[in-house]
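@channel sequence for tomorrow's demo:
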Amino acid sequence: MIDYDKITEYMTTMGLNANGGFQLSAFAINEMLGNHYSISEKDLHDGVEWLKAKMKKEVEENPYWTTEHKEDVKNGQEYFLNCFEHEAKSYLKNQNRLL
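structure tokens (generated this afternoon):
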């Protein structure tokens, strides 16, 4: 069953963190192109929060999964993104690229 209240909540979170999502996307593209720019810790965090909300929204929109399965998938994705954020912060701090 699709929980439209949760979808609205995730869309609101995405809207509030849209700038961070954009900054993180631009940073990632520059990394792939070999440009070594800096990113603020706030933009990195907001970008990861945007990603979490986007992933949760996409999972919640799946009409074929049970509520329990959706929660398991969302928890797994959130854990992965929390680990990613921690490792990215450590890596960028070591290179003096985290503002």
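heads up for whoever presents: Residues 4-94 form one domain.
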